[in-house]
Structure formats: structure tokens, C-alpha cells
Specification:
2 domains
Length: about 270
Amino acid sequence: MGTRVDGVSPDIVSAAIGSSFLGVLPRSLRDGMQREAQLRRVAPGAIVTDDGDILSIGIVVSGLARVNVEQLDGHESTLRYVRPGGSVGVEILVGDRHPVDSRAVSSTVGVQLNAGRLKALLHREPQVVQAIAQELASWLLDACDLLAWREGASVRQRLAGVLLEVTHDSAVANASGGGDLVVLCTHQALADAIGCAREVVSRALLAFAREDLVALGRGKIHVLDSVRLQVIARHPGQDLPNGVEVVQGHVFSRMVPGTVIAVTDNN
């Protein structure tokens, strides 16, 4: 699970475990996990966990990861995204077949847990069984929501959605001097996340740049208009022109104060 981060305050690890599905457990159980946990950093596109990696059960602290499965044609399909507080690798505790892996979309920091300790607790602590069952059920719902949305979404919509995920949840999305958000994520990582070719993503990003939605830099993508990206991602066929914004479900013109453009909520 990436590169170990040394010299980390125990409070960071404790907070990560407390914010995860393990936060419902008694403090004594969480303290035992914390003592054996390690903080690790994973580069964009690198594997967080893969099939059979018993050591890589973890909690995302910052950044964004995706869980994917390989299709028959060799392409990858994203099943869910993992944000800070979310977990990866828990499925290896309860089954023998694990045809998925997890990769970092942006630079990601996670707490690696001791899988052996969790397995032992699973056999003797009912609270651990319940916590794991609830986490896996949450994963299933996330996968269903993502697959249902992606089924009818265009490349443009999927790319807008991923850019919003990375800028909103990633610790590497920082406010720049101009007030925009900076995403440190390769075109290939974005392509893998939405299940298409890198060249297709590059063309879509160039189109976004021409519309002043993003600015492309070397190794960086500046998100200039997250409001319009949100509309593109969630309101098919209703891309908004420059000079409008969404406020509490309504779209207002910034050019003509008080002007409202109706938008149907398709969530």
C-alpha cells in the first residue's frame, strides 16, 4: 500500500480510524488497531490494494481512490470511489474470491491496518462483524448508484463528475491565487476512472478548456467553474452557458441578477 510515511502523529491515525466504519467500536479495540497501523502515501494511478493482498486493508485519510474490476476485453470498470473516511480491502476478510483492485485517482494517503488482527476480532467480537457487514452493504449501495448513473452518462458527464470528486475530496486540491482548484491527476488516471481511452479524455479536457471550465497546465488541471461542471455531471442536456450559477437547486444568471433558468433535478 504505497510508501510508508514516518514521523506521523498518532492523532492522525486515531482520527482516521475513528472517522471510518470502525469508529463505532469500543475505544479499547480501536486503540489496539491504532498501535499496529501505518500511514502510507500512494501516487496517482498506483495500486492501493489488489486481489489477494492481505496486508492492504486501509482507511483513506486524504485524496481519492477507486475500486475497479477488469472486464473480459481487458478494460477496467469503476465500481465505487473511496473518499476520506472510506475503506479499501475489507472484502478479503469475508471471502475467498476478490476480483477487484483499488487505485489512487489523485495522490492519496491512507492508514494501513493489520488484517490479521481484524480477522481475529471478526471471529470473537460481534460488534466487528456488524461494523464490517454495514460497511460492505454501504459499498454495494455506492456501486449500484455509480453504475446506474454511468449507464446513461456521456464521457463529458463522467469526466465532469470525476473532476468534481477529486477537487472536492482530495487533499491535493488547493485554492490557488486565483481562487480556482488545482487537481494533480494524470489524463490516464482520469481515463481509467471513467472507463475510456486517454485520448478521449484529453479531447474532452480541451473542450472544457475552450469553455473556460478548466485550465490545463503541465501535470495540473485548474478547475475554474465547478458550478457548471456540477450541472454537466448531473443534469444531462442542460449544460449552462457562462454567467450562470446554481443556488439551492435553482440556476441564476450572474449577468442579469434575479434571472432564473429552470433545471430539472435528475438525481
